[in-house]
Amino acid sequence: MAPEMIYLDHAATTPTDPRVVEAMLPYFSERFGNSSSIYRLGRSSLEALDDARESVAGLIGARRKEIIFTSGGSEADNLAIKGVAFAQREAGRGNHIITSAIEHHAVLHSVEYLEHFGFEITVLPVDETGLISLDDLRAALRSTTVLVSIMAANNEIGTIQPIAEIGAICREHDVLFHTDAVQMVGALPVDVKALNVDLLSLTAHKFYGPKGVGALYMRRGVPLLPQINGGSQERRLRAGTENVPGIVGLATALRIAVEQMDFASRHCTLLRDRLIDGIAERISYVQLNGHRSARLPNNVNLSFEFIEGESMLLLLDQQGIYASSGSACTSGSLDPSHVLMALDSSPERAHGSLRLTVGRENTVAQIDRVLELLPPIVERLRSVSPMYKQFTAQRAVAT
Questions:
Q1: Which of 19, 36, 152, 394 minimizes the number of CB atoms within 10 Å of its CB?
Q2: What is the DSSP letter of 9?
Q3: Which residues contact 300 (CB under 8 A, 6 or more apart)?
Q4: Exactly one of 134, 140, 329, 371 is catalytic; which is it?
């Protein structure tokens, strides 16, 4: 008999809520019209699109016209960063952008792309918990700075940045501020005004919505050049026929996530802490990555000395436990996590990381099952690890 599936990779993606699927289904069939068409079938889709936009805006404290629907978080990041950068430079405001060393690659690769067009980039370091320094941010600002992009919460280590404080500094210096809030939206309360953000990226599949749909909040008055041309959709800022079923799904999933947020946050925090404390009690030479308290409710990221994360993942998979060793977007890479390396980690520590991200459907019994199975897996891998054998031999000599 196959073991029970225990899914602990919610930072990578979440299962689509059945209520979300139900809300989407009519827009694949009897309400399939193009929202740009003027006849009744098209107007039905347009009405659904408008309702979804109104709903998403209200749930994050924005105005309806400040929401641009995209294909996901990566496109929203690209649109925000490239769109603002080119618009600001065209207006003669400057060519300098500030970001951090632990951003998602959708942000880091976007600013690297802009370097080819003459933009100057400052990458802020983080401390050992993954937090940027506000003093470093202040020192990095220039008269030519046109954009700061700092993520709200890190997808690998769960550290939550002081977004409202960062936004206040940017406002004080009249610099636009974008945050990649893909991991935060749906998990914690988000109010774009309270956070002092000008642009914010989100995506549906992180909060039990469908894949392939996201949104960018863009404060009214922010200059932005479209990055996809070819139509008048999304106020001419993002061409392409809107994914009405996906957008309906995004709005429905976000509404459910906000309604259940208090319960889900308490539940996930309980499971998160049970995992962190339970592993620390049962396994030696383990280090928590990221901030202990300024942390997403569902995120556990640990480094296990003397072994590799990929080996743990394979043995956990055999037991029906699905986890990650870092970002899902870089799972095919052999390079150590850029996030963990930014924490001043060694490559060995980075390669020995395991990310366990819980969801609202996980149970205490499942967490206890992981705590039962993980210690023998670690012991088995260390028993064949040359690094561990060398360590124990040196320790024996020392004692």
A1: 394
A2: B
A3: 158, 272, 275, 276, 279, 288, 355, 356, 357, 358
A4: 329
Tokens of 80: 């925000």
Give the position of tokens 């003093």.
Answer: 135
pLDDT band at 397 (very low <50, low <70, confident <90, very high): confident
d(CA 254, CA 205): 10
User: For residue 142, which of 177, 174, 110, 180 has the smallest C-alpha distance?
Assistant: 174
Which DSSP state fits 181?
Answer: -
Which pLDDT tens digit goes with each residue over 209-240? 999 999 999 999 999 999 999 999 999 999 99
Is 329 assigned a catalytic role?
A: yes
8 A C-beta contact, residue 117 and residue 84: no
Domain positions in the chain are 6-14+261-391, 18-259
| HEC per residue, 183-217 | CCECCECCCCCCCCCCEEEEEHHHCCCCCCCEEEE
For 307-336, b where at least 16 C-beta lie within 10 A, e where not — what string? bbbebbbebbeebebbbbbbbeebeeeeeb
Q: Where are the beta strands (DSSP E) in the chain?
A: 6-7, 67-70, 96-100, 120-124, 145-149, 176-180, 199-203, 214-218, 286-288, 299-304, 321-322, 353-357
In this model, does residue 126 exceed pLDDT 60? yes
For 6-14+261-391, which CATH class?
Answer: alpha beta
In this structure, the dihedral spanned by the alpha carbons of residues 57, 201, 298 and 303, taken in order and rounded to 10 degrees, is -170
Q: How far apart are CA 252 and CA 76, in angstroms?
A: 19
Q: Tell me which residue of 225, 209, 223, 243 sits closest to 69, measured CA to CA.
A: 243
* Global confidence as pTM: 0.96
Residues comprising the chain, all counted? 399
pLDDT at 386 over 70: yes
* Ordered strands of the 120-124 beta sheet: 67-70, 214-218, 199-203, 176-180, 145-149, 96-100, 120-124
Contact of 80 with 216, CB cutoff 8 Å: yes
Q: Tens digit of pLDDT for each residue in 334-375?
A: 689 999 999 988 898 899 999 999 999 999 999 999 999 999
Residue-level pLDDT at 395? 83
Looking at domain 18-259, which CATH architecture does it have?
3-Layer(aba) Sandwich (3.40)
pLDDT tens-digit profile of 30-49?
999 989 888 988 899 999 99
Q: What is the pLDDT of residues 55-77, one digit of tens each?
A: 999 999 999 999 999 999 999 99
